[in-house]
Amino acid sequence: MPNPKAAEVNVIAPLSIDQGQIDHEDSGSLCGTVIAVQANYYWVQFEPSTLPVAVLTAAQGDDVLLLCTRRSRLKKIGQQVMVGDRVQVEEADWAGGRGAIGQVLPRHSELDRPPMANADQILLVFALAEPALEPVQLSRFLVKAESTEISVCLCLNKCDLASPADQKHWGDRLAQWGYTPLLLSVHQTVGLDAILQNLSGKTTVVSGPSGVGKSSLLNALIPAVDLRVGTVSGKLLRGRHTTRHVELFKLPTGGLLADSPGFNQPDLDCTPTTLIHCFPEARRRLEGDACQFSNCLHRDEPGCVVRGDWERYEHYRIFLEEAIARQSSFERSRDAETTTKQKSGDDGQISTEPKLEAKKYRRPSRRTEKQLLLGLYLEEGEKDEGD
């Protein structure tokens, strides 16, 4: 197993405890939360109420973590373990700081980018300046967040670099979009109390483009974290990636906060018919009335109640064309006959191999051969009777 220090997680040293102090009943399955994933290893943090008394005594108030592997049976059934998963750990070796994940408990939410489970809300962080706030990019992130059906909290950082007029402009503009942004300045420690109030008692994933101050915000909220912080590129005026993986951190006021790698263009996976529901201002229009056609895409269809003079309608049209193109591409690839097939090995690993061309390299089945022979026999019998 790798050295625990190599996982770049704030961990404690293995407990100074005799494994024999823990009886068989206490050393059974334990429930914990996966706070970080490194290759095929998982850091699991436990709640104090679930731990044996001997372990709590040895920990002396510190967080208790185990570096765990995944059971082979989970690999065979294709069960992925994600950051945020509630898991059952078996065969806990408290002295060595090791364990094995035997079961993943049901999830109430799941994100694909960043890969995370059981998030209660998304804290979407953008900057008012350096880099400049781009409406289409912000709209794309908001639509992606809305498509997860998880609560969204919008935060605008670096308000100290924007004039009061610009702050009011964006506040009024985003209110028309259906959002009330939280303005803060990590550099001047302004607005941090409001952020903590929104994060308390919840599992929150921080998302947003690179360079907007996500890692700086986590450092301000949890000083012990000390994440790497990058600067904005001077040529491109874009952020540099400093966060490389997803990791959960405990907040002083309660709750968990996940930092995630920054990216500038999230992929939208909405279908053309569900895309409109990711716009709060469009949802308000649909609550009061309904379009004439149930499959209305809100372009030039008659009797549409959504099409109109709302600011992000042009954004909707851009994203709609992308969704239509993506769906068409998916349908074409689904209809086309595949040239490969997947095969499961003895170890549960899925491998891909070429598929033989139909009716060319495949040997006929014995049933088919018998039917052909029977047909030939009957034909010869009919000929003999005719003679």
Helix percentage: 25-40%
> Which CATH architecture of the largest domain?
3-Layer(aba) Sandwich
In total, the number of domains comes to 3
Strand order of the largest sheet: 10-9-8-11-13-12
The fold-level CATH name of the largest domain is: Rossmann fold
Termini gap: 83 Å
Q: Give the class-level CATH name of the largest domain.
A: Alpha Beta
Which class of secondary structure composition applies to the elements?
alpha/beta
- The tally of helices reads 9
Unreliable stretches (pLDDT < 50, length at least 5) are 1-8, 228-243
Number of strands: 15
Mean pLDDT: 81
Envelope shape: flat
Please explain how this structure is put together.
- The chain has 387 residues and is an alpha/beta fold.
- The protein folds into 3 domains: 4-105, Nucleic acid-binding proteins (OB fold (Dihydrolipoamide Acetyltransferase, E2P)), CATH 2.40.50; 111-259, P-loop containing nucleotide triphosphate hydrolases (Rossmann fold, 3-Layer(aba) Sandwich); 270-319, no CATH class.
- Helices cover 28% and strands 21% of the residues.
- The chain is built from 9 helices and 15 strands.
- The chain has helices at 53-59, 72-76, 135-147, 164-177, 192-199, 214-221, 280-288, 313-335, 366-386, and strands at residues 30-38, 41-46, 65-70, 86-93, 98-104, 110-112, 115-117, 121-127, 151-157, 182-183, 203-207, 247-250, 256-259, 340-344, 350-354.
- It has a 6-stranded mixed sheet with strand order 10-9-8-11-13-12, sandwiched between helices. Strands 1-2-3-5-4 form a 5-stranded mixed beta barrel. Strands 6-7 form a two-stranded antiparallel sheet.
- Strand 8, helix 3 (135-147) and strand 9 (151-157) form a beta-alpha-beta unit.
- It is flat, with a radius of gyration of 28 Å.
- The termini are far apart.
- The model is unreliable at 1-8 and 228-243 (pLDDT under 50).
